[in-house]
Every structure is written in structure tokens, then in C-alpha cells.
């Protein structure tokens, strides 16, 4: 199962998410986002348009997750090097691994990372 972790700024649009997801490799079972972004208009529009399930991840679940990308600003705020990468790993579940580092949408308003877990 492949899950995309999505990070987004307040002014992100559905197209921002679509672009970040496409750049990351697309083809995922669902999205994982911070629980406090559940009502974000871009997320709601994109998930409705794509018919994609959204997993809400509590902010505190990200602390200590080891990621491929590292931002000292993000690490100080969230306790992990990349929100999108940590979301993907948590969303995919135990034993998941990142497919690659997070990518940024063309407009810089969304990030995406994909993690996969081989179901047994």
C-alpha cells in the first residue's frame, strides 16, 4: 500500500496538491495530512475530485520520525525533518519506507512524499 503525506500552506490550492502528488510519483491509496488541516479548502476539493481517502494524523505523532529530508525550522516546530515524509510514514503504518524524498509543488504551496508498506 502506498500513502502520500501532504504538507500544505494556508493559501495552497487543489492544483498545488495535485502537482506535488504527481511530482512525487502519484498512484497512492490515500493521503495522510495533519489533523488540524482537515478542513483546508484545497484538501477537501482535491480529495473530493480525486475520490481519495484522507487519513488524519495528530501533530504529536510526527515527533521523532526519521525522514530523508531535514529542515531545522520544521524539526524545531514538529520534531521531525519533513512533515510530508513523516505523514507518509505514519499514514502507511508500521514497516513502511519512503519511496524518495519529499517534493514541492510548482507554486511552492504544497509538498508530497510517498511511503509504501508491503502488506503481508
TrEMBL record:
Keywords noted in UniProt: Hydrolase
UniProt entry tagged with the keyword Cytoplasm: no
Entry annotated with the keyword Hydrolase? yes
GO molecular function (one): hydrolase activity
Q: Which SUPFAM superfamilies match?
A: CobE/GbiG C-terminal domain-like
In what residue span(s) does the CobE/GbiG C-terminal domain sit? 3-115
Enumerate the Gene Ontology biological process terms.
cobalamin biosynthetic process
Q: Which InterPro entries match?
A: CobE/GbiG_C (IPR002750), CobE/GbiG_C_sf (IPR036518)
Pfam families with a match to the protein in the record: CbiG_C
Name-wise, this protein is Cobalt-precorrin 5A hydrolase
Q: Which organism is it from?
A: Albidovulum inexpectatum
Task: Supply the source organism's classification.
Answer: Bacteria, Pseudomonadati, Pseudomonadota, Alphaproteobacteria, Rhodobacterales
